[in-house]
């Protein structure tokens, strides 16, 4: 019963957040979070660097995903040190991959791809877990392979789902115009669609689709992934680790393949995009892993133990540092600029 209450409470929080985000984030107001003056140009004018809500939501989504990962695995008494070592190794490879894969596929320098980074992460995750397990074997660190992979996949599903809120705020990863879609799609989204406002939204400056009714592909992805993370969490807490892993991997990657057909942004060359191929590779890789590493019997997770782990001061500091790294990495806009003017309020002169 405690497991169900935890998942239900998480679901309610997510539902409230998404309900607000889908209504507000397409507006021009929710793209730029702050401007940092960097270079004085003339008189009181400064050139500024924009810090975006895209970075804020990406960083926050990864923080929540990491928190869920810790809760799930600490509920099984998995070594926190071993877990953080696995996370750091995977992130150290996936963060550069988010930009590198986008540059190779889309031929653009100033963009990221979560799809490319996730494919790299899924390919290296099993071997990272096994390597860390052997490395810390003499220290008695408990790091069961299948539960860790399942928890990583669940956390990734939640993180990418909530990360789409950043895409909505920046206007990227946008869907096709409703007028170009099949009549069934038009009827389905005639009432529920996105209209992006502001010249600096990516849908406007790249796709020339500012003010157009677009398929809300980011919102659909967000809802599907969040539901997948909730279902995966419930399976995990009931000890069905392989099922949780396969559910989240198959759901996210098959939806990635399908969702590409509803997107209008450039996804690379060819009828079958590189990201669709990566989705297929990810599913095949995890099917192979689960066949080679069948889940053994483990202790039943205790959600109360997992929740208590979040109060560890060292973990809190580590998560804050990771949030800052994510925010600075993804939040500094390199495709927009700003001019800042400083002056005095007349009544104080």
Structure description:
- With 349 residues, the chain is mostly helical.
- 62% of the residues lie in helices and 7% in strands.
- Strands 1-2-3 form a 3-stranded antiparallel beta sheet.
- The longest helix is centred in the N-terminal third of the chain and has 27 residues, at 80-106.
- The chain is globular.
- The chain starts with a helix and ends in an 8-residue tail after the last strand.
Oligomer: single chain
- Strand-residue proportion: 5-15%
Overall geometric form: globular
Please report the distance between the alpha carbons of the first and last residues. Answer: 65 Å
Strand order of the largest sheet: 1-2-3
Show unreliable segments. none
Average of per-residue pLDDT values: 86
Overall SS class: mainly alpha
Determine Rg (CA atoms, Å).
21 Å
- What is the number of beta strands? 3
The number of helical runs is 12
- Largest sheet composition: 3 strands, antiparallel
Helix content: 55-70%
């Amino acid at each position: 019963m405690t497991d169900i209450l935890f998942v239900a409470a998480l679901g309610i929080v997510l539902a409230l957040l998404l309900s607000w985000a889908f209504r507000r984030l397409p507006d021009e107001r929710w793209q730029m979070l702050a401007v940092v003056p960097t270079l004085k140009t003339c008189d009181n004018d400064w050139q500024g660097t924009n810090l975006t809500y895209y970075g804020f939501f990406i960083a926050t989504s990864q923080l929540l995903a990491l928190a869920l990962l810790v809760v799930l695995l600490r509920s099984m008494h998995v070594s926190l040190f071993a877990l953080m070592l696995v996370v750091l190794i995977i992130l150290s490879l996936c963060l550069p991959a988010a930009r590198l894969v986008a540059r190779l596929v889309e031929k653009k320098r100033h963009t990221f791809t979560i799809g490319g980074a996730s494919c790299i992460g899924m390919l290296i995750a099993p071997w990272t877990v096994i390597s860390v397990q052997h490395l810390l074997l003499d220290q008695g660190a408990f790091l069961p392979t299948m539960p860790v992979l399942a928890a990583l996949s669940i956390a990734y599903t939640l993180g990418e789902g909530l990360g789409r809120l950043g895409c909505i705020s920046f206007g990227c990863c946008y869907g096709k115009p409703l007028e170009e879609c099949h009549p069934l799609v038009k009827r389905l989204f005639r009432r529920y669609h996105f209209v992006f406002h502001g010249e600096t939204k990516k849908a406007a400056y790249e796709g020339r689709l500012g003010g157009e009714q677009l398929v809300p592909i980011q919102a659909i992805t967000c809802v599907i992934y969040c539901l997948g993370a909730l279902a995966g969490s419930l399976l995990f807490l009931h000890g069905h680790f392989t099922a949780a892993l396969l559910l989240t991997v198959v759901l996210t990657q098959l939806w990635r393949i399908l969702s590409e057909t509803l997107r209008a942004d450039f996804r690379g060359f060819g009828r079958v995009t590189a990201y669709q191929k990566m989705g297929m590779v990810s599913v095949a890789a995890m099917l192979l892993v689960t066949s080679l590493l069948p889940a053994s019997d483990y202790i039943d997770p205790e959600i109360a133990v997992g929740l208590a782990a979040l109060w560890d001061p060292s973990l809190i500091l580590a998560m804050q540092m990771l949030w800052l790294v994510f925010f600075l990495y993804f939040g500094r806009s390199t495709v927009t600029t700003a001019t800042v003017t400083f002056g005095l309020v007349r009544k104080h002169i």
